[in-house]
Model the fold of this input.
Amino acid sequence: MVESNPVPGKGTMKKLVITDVETVQFTKVVKNIKFFANMNMGLLEKILNRINYYQCEKGEKVCKQGDPGDAFYVVNEGKLLVSVREAFLFSRKLAYLGPGDCFGEMALLNRAPRNATVVCEEDSKIFVLMIDNFDQVLEENPAFALEIQKLAADRRFELDHK
Done:
């Protein structure tokens, strides 16, 4: 089922209703991500209640290099291209993402601008967790907020010492 309201700033992405099948798929994917791996089921359910599901058309930009890091994404269907602009007109392809792949988790931690552009190579369906919704989960779960702060500190340490 498709709702007519697109995500503000996200082009023509169409919001979909999440079924039980998509809920199971999302849960399986995020359990393999370090960021979510230690969450108990109750906390994961709270996040699931704040997840949105969108349909994107071929050629549509999901996020653009330099834009605010305002969301975390999980690909459920389709194929997306990750690229980075290195010169005025030159972009380098970094990766292709498909079902089960995710991107943007560091945006939830460090609020830094996007370091790449992600474009749909074919019609796709993606789960989206906006930063405001993630912040609400943190406010309601102080123990989880502490874990996230530790994860962010560890990640910054890793990046600073590469």
About this structure: Strands lie at 2-6, 14-16, 52-56, 61-63, 71-77, 80-85, 91-97, 102-103, 117-120, 124-130. The first strand starts at residue 2 and ends at 6.
